[in-house]
Amino acid sequence: MKTPIGGNPMTVLSMTARPLASEAPQAQTAQPMVRFRDVCKSYGSFSVLNRLNLEVGANEKVAIIGPSGSGKSTLLRALMTLESIDSGVIEVDGEPLTHQLRNGEPVRASEAHVRRVRGKIGMVFQSFNLFPHMSALKNVMEAPVQVLGMRRSEARERAEELLAMVGLGDKLEHYPTQLSGGQQQRVAIARALAMRPKVMLFDEVTSALDPELCGEVLNVVRRLGAEHNLTMLMVTHQMGFAREFADRVCFFHQGGILEQGTPEQLFGQPQHERTRCFLSAVNEAS
């Protein structure tokens, strides 16, 4: 029987990470910014994450690829606590996300702890999720004011800087319906950055866009990776971008990492037949 994340916390935190046999060893010398240890998640009888182990270093850029239903988006949603996990540990910047040690004993973390740790993470979704009644400027300003308690003048200045950075300095007062899909996604990226995260998650951020609009969004992501000290995890079906952008590529299969390596290794010399079949199918489709 699985232990729910809200169940016995000793079960959750006392695990020793045992990597899946199919997972490649991960050489992290410094404390990772993100760590998954034996994380499991199921929907009924369907296992979405199967004792997943993953470490992502500070400022590392990791692309996550794989077939539909392999657990890629669930990984990101669990990291944002949008999905509960059944067992295992998720750590961000050295701290357990949903549990704390109190007098040496693991206990369920307070909402304040979860919010604080989760505040180190920003996420950009497939859908833009902008407030339709707010301008681009107010969409970016609102969370820093309401969540961080930032002065409105400071939040406005930062929002203007971020929107200029993503190429929308001339669209501050435009509403979502007045923006293209690519522009809306760039507002969503600016909104996530406004919270000053250490980790940025991107979940198929170009999947809802027409092909000609994908480039403008990927260019923004490319610039973030080059100019900002951010740990970045990107679920993507854009193999060319993953090859160019990522420090490491992880191929997901049946809720775990079947294979991982540098883009040159994974795309150039995949070791597993399942990886080769997936990449071949993607290449044929494109």
TrEMBL record:
Gene3D superfamilies: P-loop containing nucleotide triphosphate hydrolases (3.40.50.300). Pfam families: ABC_tran. One of its GO terms (molecular function) is ATP binding. GO terms for biological process: amino acid transport. Keywords: Amino-acid transport, ATP-binding, Cell inner membrane, Cell membrane, Membrane, Nucleotide-binding, Transport. PROSITE patterns: ABC_TRANSPORTER_1 (PS00211), ABC_TRANSPORTER_2 (PS50893). It is a peripheral membrane protein. The keyword Translocase does not apply. Residues 34-279 form the ABC transporter domain. One of its GO terms (cellular component) is plasma membrane. Transmembrane segments: none annotated. It is found in: Cell inner membrane. Belongs to the ABC transporter superfamily. This is Ectoine/hydroxyectoine ABC transporter ATP-binding protein EhuA.
